Amino acid sequence: MIEQTLDIKTAAGEMETFICRPERGGPFPAVFLLMDAPGIREELRDMVRRLGTVGYNVLLPNLYYRAGHDTIFGPDVLEEGSAERARMRAVRTKMTIPPVMDDAAAMLAFIDSQAEIKRGPVGCHGYCMSGPYALAAAARYPDRIAAAASFYGTWFVSDAEESPHLSLNKVKGELYIACAEHDSLAPLPMVEELLALFGRAGTVGEIELYPGVHHGFAFPLRWCYDKPAAERHWERLTALYRRRLG
């Protein structure tokens, strides 16, 4: 695998981005992997590497870059009451959808300038807080993002500007939304509401409930990691990208 870390220029500064692609057989389609709330860490880089091995040029941006380059948190960021968690929350609570859509535009401009990235449709998926970002990007850039996925995305039906439920009818590509049965950040009534909105909008794709699992089930280092569900998430994601990106 070929790995590099670059700063992608945005309207707000420089967004540090980890990029990975196979050594042979390129150019490859671009995929954006959007981080969860604890931020950039080796666990996410390993997920980028896994997806890269099957034929994609995967970009993992630090969406917290507006708060500085020190927005890399220690392992106790997951512990309630820890100093690292408080530091992360101070950044996370300022995140809104519109600036992230500007970041997506910068990433699209970047990949268009790279010879090793295949021209054509782009994929985008996010975990936790970034599930809604991935869905919103598919609506904001329908002619570019042909496949988008959310894994235990949080509050995808809300009063937030550009909340993804408001623009499902703008999506031209295919969506895949995976929800955990036990998730206080996306409770089952919200999932049912989104399912109804999905049907009324005529959106292409699927909303799938993963029974018996908790928010964060796809992360190997999380207490709630569920290997069968995690492997199912890889299967669904890879199939989606194969259908839509090649």
User: Which radius of gyration do the C-alpha atoms yield?
Assistant: 17 Å
Uncertain stretches of 5 or more adjacent residues: none
Count of individual beta strands: 8
Strand share of the residues?
A: 15-25%
Q: How many individual helices?
A: 6
Characterization of this structure:
The protein is an alpha/beta fold. Helix content is 33%, strand content 24%. It has an eight-stranded mixed sheet, sandwiched between helices. Helix 3 packs across helix 4. The protein is globular and about 45 Å long. The model has no long low-confidence stretch (mean pLDDT 95).
Key terms:
alpha/beta; eight-stranded mixed sheet; 33% helix; 8 strands; 246 residues; 24% strand
List the helices and strands and how they pair.
Blueprint: E1 2-10, E2 13-21, E3 30-34, H1 42-52, E4 57-61, H2 83-92, H3 97-112, E5 122-127, H4 130-140, E6 145-151, E7 174-182, H5 188-201, E8 205-214, H6 227-245
Parallel strand pairs: 3-4, 3-5, 5-6, 6-7, 7-8
Antiparallel strand pairs: 1-2, 2-4
Helix pairs in contact: 3-4
Short description:
Helix content is 33%, strand content 24%.
